[in-house]
Amino acid sequence: MRMFPISAAVAAASALLPAEALRAQDERGFCPDRPGLGTPACTLDRGRFALELGVIDWTVDREDGARADLVAGGDLLLRYGLTGSLEVQAGWTLFGHSRLRSGGAVETTSGVGDVLIALRQNLQNPDGSGLAVAIMTYATLPTGGAALGAGDWGAGVIVPLSYELPRGFALGFTATVEAAVDGDRDGRHLAYGGIAGLDLPLSDSLGATVEVAARRDRDPEATEWLAGVSAGWSPRADLQLDAGANIGLSRAAPDLQLYAGIAKLF
Asked: Comparing C-alpha atoms, which of 93, 89, 97, 99 is closest to residue 114?
């Protein structure tokens, strides 16, 4: 085996250290979509790939003596940075099971979810620092069954904003306008809403978010109000484990949602 002189090795290491330090300084931190109700304004850097997976999601809704339970697993979101400020997303839920109990009757359905295709363009501070703003367009394709699928295609626009506060706190707001699928699974109607949240730093690797969301739907005519709390733990800079809960604040909203998942940057 060929041996390099010690002086040459020291010189090579000295030359590489500044380049490595500069690369680490320029590398953008991981900004997962999960968890929470809102959407982040940050985007993945060019050529970076992220996989985010909702491991388990349970939603329960009680109304007029009936109870509906929906359990979903494998809520998959793939993200890829096309440029320094533009990313593409694709999502699909692998499995869902719905159970509706009314009186003595029980109805169950199972199936996969619809496909989501989205583009998010950051307009200011793609790393999420300072005041960050983005615009995101998306479409859903009716590939899912009765348990999770809407029955027709839908589309929408999301405008997320975030603002860093001192000591690691941050404010977030997400505005949404969508062509939502009608309740009879055929055709679309207007729906719109907003989500406001506050990020709370609990430690160097653990953070929490509290949120309030409102959504106005035209079919049926109703306004959903939700409150949510979620937490994400990052044992490494490229990995996050998360869990959260949402509580319905209005009659039109689901009573309770509990979920947990994972996000990984490549």
From this structure: 93
| Tokens 């929906």, located at residue | 70
CB count, 10 Å around CB of 55?
15
Q: Measuring CA to CA, how many Å separate 186 from each of 142, 181, 183, 262?
A: 11, 7, 8, 34
**Which residue, 143, 134, 40, is CA-closest to 94?**
143
Per DSSP, the three-state class of 31 is: coil
The whole model's pTM is what?
0.88
Q: Are 141 and 153 in contact (CB under 8 A)?
A: yes
How many Å is the Cα radius of gyration of the chain?
22
Residue 12, φ and ψ in degrees, nearest 5: -65, -45
Closest among 253, 196, 155 to 36, alpha carbons compared: 196
What does the block give as tokens for 53? 């997976």
Q: Which residues of the chain, if any, have pLDDT below 70?
A: 1-26
Q: Tens digit of pLDDT for each residue in 41-67?
A: 999 999 999 999 999 999 999 988 899
